[in-house]
Design a protein that fits this description.
Helix content: 10-25%
Strand order of the largest sheet: 3-4-8-7-6-5
Order of helices and strands: HHEEEEEEEEE
Structural class: mainly beta
Distance between the termini: 36 Å
Strand content: 25-35%
Oligomer: single chain
Length: 134
Amino acid sequence: MSYEIEKTEAEWRAQLSPEEYHVLREAGTERPFVGEYTDTKTVGVYSCRACGAELFSSETKFDSHCGWPSYYAPLAEDRVQYIEDTTLGMRRVEVRCARCGGHLGHVFDGEGYGTPTDQRYCINSVSLTLKPAE
């Protein structure tokens, strides 16, 4: 796949912390309930920590109590990319930044949350940067 922003692995390693690199470039997962944005209520826009692309709004963030920040929709469908993920012996849908290919988390359907889309974008805090509204 090609992305608008492409860097070598050495360039990504130089830009990102080891934890950021593990999640964003190696599709890792941060531990539950420890992420910077898990319980944040600040109004603003969440951007990709690797490239700055605006991905999610605080307006779609909700309390899922799953241990990671949850959103019921991205800012726009072209901001994220969906990849079938069959690791861990199950079918999941990985969510990546459409601009740089950074791993964000996964999206789940039909879990019964009272959201307009019945979707839960389960996103790693370390993949995001929050820009508070002014």
